[in-house]
Design brief:
Elements (H helix, E strand, L loop, with lengths): L5 H24 L5 H13 L23 E5 L12 E7 L9 E11 L20 H12 L6 E6 L19 E4 H10 L17 H10 L5 H9 L7 E4 L2 E4 L10 E2 L4 E2 L6 E4 L7 H11 L3 E6 L2 H15 L9 H9 L3
Parallel strand pairs: 2-11, 3-4
Antiparallel strand pairs: 1-11, 2-3, 3-6, 4-5, 6-7, 7-10, 8-9
């Protein structure tokens, strides 16, 4: 059963896509200077979807149930090891229709963000991990532990410094980030003996721009909008039951082989449940920050879903866009940003 109707899911996706396009524009202009900077800016835009000057806490546009802020989005300058090889987590929250119920439903998505500067020939976007091999392959192997939980949506998110609207073979999605499902990246890695070393997530060598182009050519690419739309409409992933304080899930027993602990130099079984908190009367930001530090997430976003409020948010956002400037984009390009979700 979908969290949102197809129309409302598309509205939410368009809102997210708009802000992803703004971040790409700022990256092109040099106003954003790193992967972390991009993720942080995107989190800020999502926290204030209509802009902080228009509405600091947009309660009129997005639902604000008691003890539960509508959008929570924060970043941490964490130096913790990424247990799951992911930079960020996005949680969609479906509140119960019965106000006396505490039965919430959640959709969980996790992603790894990369800025490969693919327009620059032979740019070394992948780096060596502690064991001297590919850090990206190591991250893919860690992510694969989460692949045992079919309800969790996993993707790789590649930023582009090309101008918004610019179409090229290297950056096939022109209006923001290019997203590729984890399973496609994983299968591509396994198909190349020079990149794959599953046991510890290492690789014979680092990924190159040519490897990334081959991955893109072999995969079905998506916009961030299509990922969010798929999650909200339940076309990808499955709902996870929880309560007003958050949700919990367990990894499959065989997933431990992918969680290689660099400090101990061996695989580390993770037998405890993974508890993901959200804000409520008992949880504050400290709970979320502790969760992020524990698993090495740099970005956390949760969005409370409500069809009527999503429509209101989009209505106000569309009005705001009429006066917003996204660099020197012409009106046709700006209209296409609003329409493209795949």
């Amino acid at each position: 059963m979908p969290f949102l109707s197809p129309a409302a899911a598309k509205e939410l996706a368009e809102l997210v896509q708009y802000h992803d396009a703004v971040c790409r524009h700022d990256l092109h202009q040099g106003l954003i200077t790193s992967e972390r900077d991009y993720v942080s800016n995107l989190a800020t835009h999502l926290r204030y979807p209509l802009g902080s000057l228009i509405n600091t806490m947009p309660a009129s546009a997005i639902p604000k149930p008691a003890y539960h802020p509508p959008i929570t989005s924060l970043t941490l300058p964490t130096s913790s090891e990424q247990l799951f090889g992911c930079d960020g987590i996005i949680v969609l929250i479906a509140p119960p229709k019965d106000e006396n119920s505490d039965a919430y439903l959640y959709k969980v998505g996790m992603f790894e963000a990369k800025w490969p500067r693919i327009s620059k020939p032979n740019y070394p976007w992948d780096k060596k991990s502690y064991h001297g091999h590919s850090h990206f392959s190591y991250q893919l192997a860690r992510q694969h532990a989460l692949a045992s939980v079919e309800k969790v949506v996993l993707w790789e998110m590649f930023f582009s410094e090309e101008a918004v609207g610019n179409i090229s073979g290297d950056t096939p999605f022109p209006w923001g980030s290019t997203c590729i499902w984890h399973k496609d990246a994983w299968n591509h890695m396994l198909s190349n003996i020079n990149l794959a070393h599953v046991k510890q997530g290492s690789a014979a060598r680092q990924w190159t721009s040519a490897d990334l182009r081959a991955l893109i050519a072999a995969s079905t690419v998506h916009s961030l909008a299509s990922v969010i739309e798929g999650m909200a409409s339940c076309n990808i992933g499955e709902p996870i039951e929880g309560n007003s304080g958050g949700l919990s899930f367990q990894l499959a027993p065989n997933a431990a082989q992918f969680l290689f602990n660099s400090e101990e130099g061996k695989t580390s079984p993770l037998t405890e449940p993974i508890n993901i908190p959200v804000l409520n009367r008992n949880n504050d930001l400290t709970e979320i920050q502790n969760f992020m530090r524990k698993y090495g997430f740099r970005s956390y976003t949760s969005i409370m879903l409500d069809e009527e409020a999503i429509r209101a948010a989009m209505s106000e956002a569309k009005q705001a866009r009429m006066t917003a400037m996204i660099g020197r984009l012409d009106k046709d390009a700006e209209n296409q940003i609003n329409n493209v979700t795949n």
